[in-house]
Amino acid sequence: MAAYGLYSHIQSNRRRSIALLAGLFFLVYVLVYAGALVAAGLSVNADLNTLMQIAWTDLLKAAPFATVGTVLWVVIAYYFHQSMIDAITGGQEVQRKDQPRLYNLLENLCISRGIATPKLKVIDSDALNAFATGMNAKQYSITVTSGLLNRLDDAEIESVLGHELTHIRNGDVRMMVIAVIIAGVVSFFVELIFRLWFYNGFRGPRSDERRGGGAGAAILIAVGLLAVAYVLSFVIRLALSRSREFLADAGSVELTKNPDAMISALRKIEGRGELPGATSAVMEMCLDNPREGFGELFDTHPTVDARVAALVKFAGGHDPGPIALPAPDDDDQAAPVGPWGSAEDGAADQPAGETPIRQLSPSGTSDSSAVGPWSDAPAEPSSGPTAAPGPWGPRRD
Q1: Beta bridge partner(s), residue 94
Q2: Catalytic residues
Q3: Is the model's pLDDT at 387 over the cut of 70?
Q4: β-sheet bridge partners, residue 133
Q5: What DSSP state is assigned to residue 172?
Q6: pTM above the 0.85 mark?
């Protein structure tokens, strides 16, 4: 059933989550049957119908074990998926004392809507990205990269946090985690079956007495089933409508009342969100997924241009266009400059045409070679005993 509003989208996500879990068990049984068919074709001298009957019998025998194994996998993923994701991405949990700026922004958003504050994690990476994970209120967490914290201002970071909070409120996060579980289960079984097949097929006995006329057809059917299961696991991820990103952007604007901040955050993140070492399943959970498919057909996220256009059209935002950012190395090498200029370099660091800032000598008095902001040149100090330096140059009696 299509979702036409926020609440119907939430209900749709709940129904899809149940359907995805049911689909997971179906795919596992298909994989077990394909594996049994391969084993029968490699070991029994019989026609195709006999081999398929043998595989079906083996499936019935193995079904309880496959069910228990799948349930165990789901339970492990339910409780430990965050630890596995953190191991892949390097995310570290932070508290208010570690990231007061980030924590206060998130807490204010949560207080405004009366929802529990998720855990906060930070990835030490120059990439600009963020994602939310969790299956229930006790597990929800939002992870951001250090690059995003360094490159975005407070309003933009608040918009990113609002986007991820909306994913949590809408139930998108739970469904994405289930999709990751399905992808992991299917990939594991497919790889396991192919490894067993290659080992038995290429290293085991290959005499014709051990293979009947149906062996080749049985193996081809098994390969076809494996391919279908793998494709279905991919289609399941595509079934997670890309409209969830549009809704999360809109939810962020509803929380922050600042569409321009969401737009500028998207423009800064655009093309800079690749997390090194992250799997495709993890990237699909991120604010922006720079890994593109074939002509957007297999993309899990709409383009930044499309998302910005929606915010301009429906939220009244303004699009500044692509935003160029300096390289991270340039930011690290730049000396911190205060509101009155660099404390170390002084007047040498002032822009051309600016009046240099007055420097103080070690004794705390004004350096006679410096020029103050209210005078073109320092007054000549008096040689008399009454000469005393004032804040705008030497004072004469």
Answers
A1: 120
A2: 164
A3: no
A4: 141
A5: H
A6: no
